[in-house]
Design goal:
Length: 576
């Protein structure tokens, strides 16, 4: 927490000084009020000074109240400005830093957890900053100040304060020491709720299709109940704080009235001074409860700060290269004995992958589920880095490229078609912000998307709903292909991105790409042998290794795995 405070509170020194100082002024006025009340009772009422004195002292109290209110308003304003600004800066930094993560870091931390940290954890820190400015100085000052003021009135009666304050402190320590460890657990359980909610909402159609609504409700209820149970357990402990504190304080007040009565009878104290003692005890009571609540706030903030720091201190495994000087090379893409693993348990997702692909050629990649097809193409764009071996583009290791430089050369159409809220044209311009409407139309025609776009109510200005909910699966895939083509990349990667298209549209798409992409190097990942059979080179993957590399005819002769895939699909086609 101190690390986060040091980094982000330095820009708000004015608020951190003026805010507490203003609150301190209000606290000083609050400590003086009981003495004025004592004088009103002792001098104005019992002493016979009469109404003029009472009015004069009452006016002084009102004036102090006005000044105290003004001080409080200044403090509240500065606290709000500082806390909101800190929250905004932290959120921006988190979002910016998360944007530098490779797939590996996002996989490890989890999307739902990252969302919770940006929203809920930052809110906890933001709340702590506000409390820091408003109450951290005021509450302890009132406790100490009230005790000192009471001692100044009567040392013997103030012994009650010296007994009660440690007792209340012991109660605070007892409750906090048992409730504090739960706050970190609560945040993790909130992550689980976020995960379940995200999966349920994004997969709503699948859930309905399989009639799994009851199961999802049960799963959410279990996560929610788990969170609620932990929160209630913590809440039950925290709920003891106020009643126990007030019980002790009421006993103290009763003791003050009881023993104060004897002191009044003996002439050592006046009635007004006893009332002042009671007021000081009430101030201490309220201040100690505030201190207890501050402990809760800062404990939550400490737990949240560690989670925020975990994200900010996570170094992206994909580091931006220095930038590469590119010379024209006949070999566009080259893999040299590449190995890759998603974890450290020794299981390789890819091993001994070596091939060359010339500029303008088409590469087909085929293999069973989990054979490493998507992993292989992810290494080209550096979504992951090879653990051993080299991946080269234009003869330069991809690690040497600046990420922007590299990814401007590569257009990727992922397996899952992802579109964003906005118009069709805005989505197509993601890779090329300056693309003209004519260029967008040409890309859409190549991707076989122009026909359905032009039938939309507003054509290229038609608004796409979140995630493309107002489009079919095939329409979304064709738009994502058009988006990649509109960027005019040197390398186009189609990662099983035509799976929702019928055979005729798929064939027309491949034919249009071959005719309209000129010197573009194309990589097609597919489960369909027909989709890649005309490629200049085909890689057959089997459990992360290359079972065969060659043309369709060569592989039919030499690769048993490829032959089995082709034969099984031909059999299925005849069966249909």
């Amino acid at each position: 927490m101190f690390k986060l405070a040091k980094k982000y509170l330095g820009a708000f020194k004015k608020e951190l000084i003026i805010g507490p100082a203003a609150k301190l002024i209000e606290a000083i006025f609050e400590l003086i009020v009981p003495l004025i009340m004592a004088d009103i009772i002792d001098i104005g009422i019992n002493g016979g000074a009469g109404k003029p004195y009472i009015y004069r002292m009452g006016g002084l109290m009102i004036l102090m109240g006005v000044f105290g209110l003004c001080s409080t308003l200044v403090c509240q304003y500065l606290a709000s400005r500082a806390s909101q600004s800190v929250g905004t800066v932290i959120r921006n930094d988190l979002f910016r830093h998360i944007g530098t993560f490779s797939h590996a870091e996002i996989d490890r931390l989890g999307t739902s957890s990252l969302i919770t940290r940006i929203v809920n954890d930052v809110n906890q820190v933001q709340n702590a900053v506000a409390m820091l400015i408003r109450l951290v100085v005021r509450a302890p000052f009132l406790v100490v100040g009230a005790a000192i003021m009471a001692m100044g009135i009567d040392m013997k009666l103030s012994l009650i304060f010296l007994v009660i304050i440690p007792v209340v402190g012991a109660i605070l320590w007892f409750i906090m020491s048992r409730s504090v460890p739960f706050f970190k657990v609560i945040q993790k359980k909130l992550d689980k709720i976020g995960l379940v909610t995200r999966e349920s909402l994004s997969g709503a159609r699948v859930i309905r299709a399989f009639s799994r609504a009851d199961y999802e409700e049960k799963r959410f209820a279990e996560a929610n109940d788990d969170y609620a149970e932990t929160s209630m357990r913590t809440g039950r402990l925290s709920a003891l704080l106020n009643p126990l504190t007030y019980a002790v304080m009421n006993i103290a007040i009763a003791a003050i009235v009881w023993f104060g009565g004897f002191r009044v009878d003996s002439g050592a104290l006046t009635q007004g001074q006893v009332i002042a003692f009671v007021n000081y005890m009430m101030q201490i009571s309220v201040a100690l409860v505030v201190v207890a609540n501050l402990v809760v706030v800062f404990t939550k903030a400490a737990a949240s700060s560690s989670r925020i720091n975990e994200v900010l201190e996570t170094e992206p495994s994909i580091v931006d290269g220095e930038g590469a000087v590119i010379a024209e090379k006949p070999v566009k893409i080259q893999f040299k004995d590449v190995f890759f693993s998603y974890n450290a348990n020794g299981e390789n997702a890819l091993e001994h992958i070596s091939f060359e692909l010339k500029k303008g050629d088409t590469l087909g990649i085929i293999g069973g589920t989990g054979s490493g097809k998507s992993t292989l193409v992810s290494l080209i764009s550096r979504f992951y880095d090879a653990e051993q071996g080299e991946v080269l583009i234009d003869g330069v290791n991809v690690r040497k490229y600046g990420l922007k430089q590299l990814r401007s050369k590569v257009g990727v159409v992922p397996q899952k078609a992802m579109l964003f809220t906005g118009t069709v044209a805005e989505n197509l311009r993601w890779g090329n912000e300056n693309a003209t409407l004519a260029e967008l139309k040409r890309a859409a025609e190549t991707a076989q998307a122009a026909e359905f776009i032009e039938k939309m109510p507003e054509g290229y200005d038609t608004v796409i709903a979140q995630g493309g909910r107002n489009l079919s699966g095939g329409q979304k895939q064709r738009l994502t292909i058009a988006r990649a083509l509109a960027a005019r990349p040197e390398i186009l990667i189609l990662d099983d991105s035509a799976s929702a298209l019928d055979f005729a549209t798929d064939a027309a798409l491949r034919r249009a790409i071959a005719e309209n992409t000129e010197d573009m190097t194309v990589i097609i990942v597919s489960q369909r042998a027909n989709s890649i059979k005309n490629a200049d080179k085909i890689i057959v993957l089997d459990d992360g290794a290359a079972a065969g590399i060659g043309t369709h005819a060569e592989l039919m002769e030499s690769c048993e795995v490829y032959r089995e895939i082709v034969m099984s699909q031909e059999t299925e086609g005849k069966g249909e």
